[in-house]
Amino acid sequence: MSIVTPEFRVSYPNVFKAQVNKLSGREEFSIVALFPKGADLSKLKAAAQEAMVKKWGSDKAKWPKNIRSPFRDQGERAKEVDGKMVMPAGHEEGAIFLNLKSANRPGVVDQNVQDIIDESQFYAGCFARASLNAYAYDQAGNRGVSFGLGNIQKTKDGDPLGNRARPEHEFAPIKTEGGSAASDDLFG
Questions:
Q1: CB of 110 closer than 8 Å to CB of 93
Q2: Per-residue pLDDT tens digits for 7-25
Q3: Structural contact between residues 90 and 162, judged by C-beta atoms closer than 8 angstroms
Q4: What is the pLDDT of residues 115-169, one digit of tens each?
Q5: What is the DSSP letter of 132?
Q6: Does the residue 185 lie in any domain?
Q7: Whole domain around residue 157: which residue ranges?
Q8: CATH number for the domain including 143?
Q9: Based on C-alpha coordinates, what's the Rg of the chain?
Q10: Which residues contact 67 (CB under 8 A, 6 or more apart)?
Q11: 132, exposed or middle or buried, with CB in 10 Å at 0-12, 13-18, 19+?
């Protein structure tokens, strides 16, 4: 069953070109969903619970120990810099993040459900929501629940995460001697 997430901030988007997963060696598409504190994740949690019941039965006493949760605290991504713990840009301690992955390329659309062709329009820092499905796994001693990535809808722009500013914030159109912007004069 496919469910749609609440709005989240996009981090580490690999949704146009597959990347090799270092653990599995397989190519996959992925995105990290950064939810704000207080986001209503009840539908996602119910789907995760349903996946566990489907995999291991309704008797929780018979479930494996140490099941990995897909709901992780953004604070665990903090790194020590000069003796202080520093959160990555866009992260907030106590807020939840999810790693979403798929072997198949997700559809990526804008607010009007039009395909995003220009990859620069979908970036770390914009906001989106995604369709996904919960599944439980038991592989090589690792047991848990994860979410498979279906499709993504960009909901709005946001400040880019990382050190790069958006070009439109750094530059203004250049006027030519004739008074029009250079990009308007195709043949000089």
A1: no
A2: 999 999 999 999 998 878 8
A3: no
A4: 999 999 999 999 999 999 999 999 888 899 999 999 999 999 999 987 666 677 6
A5: E
A6: no
A7: 3-164
A8: 2.40.50.140
A9: 20
A10: 52, 143, 144, 145
A11: buried
